[in-house]
Records
---
Amino acid sequence: MAGVNPVAKLAATMVLTVPLVLTLDVVSAGAALLVELLLMPWAGLRWGEFWRRTWLVWALAPLTGVTIALYGRTSGQVYVEWLAVRVSDGSLELALATTLRVLAIALPSVVLFASVDPTDLADGLSQIWRLPARFVLGALAGLRMVGLFLDDWRALELARRARGVADRGRLRRFLGMAFALLVLSIRRGAKLATAMEARGFGAPGPRTWARISRFGAREWALIAVGAGVAVVAVAAALAAGTWNFILGPG
């Protein structure tokens, strides 16, 4: 996957996600998740790296289901009823469908973009999707600055500790550091915009690129795989009679 154009990964994720967003049922989400897990060995990630990158998704998806189970639409037999909490057959089914849908949408997104280089993505967006170069370059520059946030946060924490103001008041300290980080980000963004403008990044007219972004058979194959997973999910839901178009009546 490291050699596949990031634009193809983005397109495959969109093709796969749209059908899952349009319905909320157990069969479509479960079928998509099953096929995705079968395809994971060909994603280019070792199992150790796969679990390190996706453990947060596995941990948070059930929490979404718990919320739906407690406060979702009530139907069928009610098992627990307390104040605003109602656990019923309908809420449990929605909870399971929501959990599976979150996993089916989030897992391929995390795995496909695990090896994406921001510069390659910017090249593809500009050269293949023909997005405005000014917008793409600005987004790329901002994305490159994200890695500095952690260093800035650590520097702020060490500076406050050296001044003796970081020993207590954890919430107050967090809000103060967050505001200081916001000020630093605004100043750095202004300086970066001025530097890029001075170097001609905002100049009108066609722009040349140092690296050619190529879109070939591998990219089309990845998009076809994403479309295939979506077709399997929709077909399974239609065959089981569980397709639930969320924009439909009722």
---
Amino acid sequence: MALSFFWSKEFLTNRYFLWLLFWCNALGTVYGYFWYGEQMKQTLAQQPVWQIVFVPDSPTASLFFTLALLWVLYPAKSVVLQRIGHVIQALAVVTSVKYGVWAVAIIFAGWSQGGAQHWQDWMLIASHSAMAIEALMYVRFFGFRWLALIVAGLWTLLNDTMDYTYDIFPWLPAALYQHVEAVRNFTFTLTIVSILAAWLALRKAKRA
């Protein structure tokens, strides 16, 4: 009974809860950009400036979800704003699922290769798992459809291409740098899986 309440529309779309979720994600986004600070500085020093957009993957996914919540809190009346909101919401779902799962998998993969465990790893596991879960929970309250999902999928595949073409992918545990090709293949595969997960969740939401 309690579980069904926490899953209910009444609870998940409660404005107080939405604002709590908004600020948690907003603070997590800011922290995430600080986390990527050194890699962003290095990219700006060594790579063309435009590539900086593709460096902070997880914080940008979190930013998309944070913005997506605004369209739930304040439904757009303008068709143009609705379309923009739909693309942001689709990006929020695809990238949050993708990078949420990716970060957790990479941490465990690093450990399996003999990498040291740190307390920050558990913090990242918890926060990135929450990214994926909340994105799938809120699909049914987002208004995007297939076209927006296609745009989100293409953007995420472009991000992967930039990461592994120009070596601006997120810094890995040291033990995984000898397996970058495998990480790249896993990353592209996970993007496809995330697009399919968003599509299936969307289908289920439409039937509900």
---
Amino acid sequence: MARTKEFDPEAALQAALELFWRRGYEATSMSDLVEHLGIGRASLYATFGNKHELYLKALERYDRTGLPPIVRELSQPGPALPAVRSVVRRYAAEATDARLRLNGCMITNTAAELGPHDPAAARHVERNWDQLETVLHSALVRAQAQGELPAGRDPLTLARMLLVLLQGLRVVGKASADPARVRDAAEQALALLD
């Protein structure tokens, strides 16, 4: 007879996500995960696979919870440019928030730590960035059609610039104690939308 799980896999995945997000992939050992999740090593392997598989599942969970609110905000009917500005300013605020900035963004952290040598992680990062770029592009196309964005601006290149800016805000915010650096960069980029 199969044994029933003595733990909640979703709660365990969330706990793994939080540990990986705080410490990174390389600095988190299987022993750390066993201790932090409070489950046995065999149960951990049976449920999630090895450390790498668990990390990718945690990354997917992060993506499922982080991107949909941005998609909803940028897809709302009505003026699009205020929503784009709101998203950029929220990224800047989160990047300078004392409680949030040291963890940074798990997607950005993954890009920096694993992207150069881990194809599975790099594919996940690219997929996230493609989705964010697409929703920014769509919002900017809508803004241009509604007369909010000058006709001479290219919504695709602006979306790509904003994507790179948002990722950069997360990196600089994580490493810099000067919030003005992040806020000023965000506002300067937003001025390009006028």
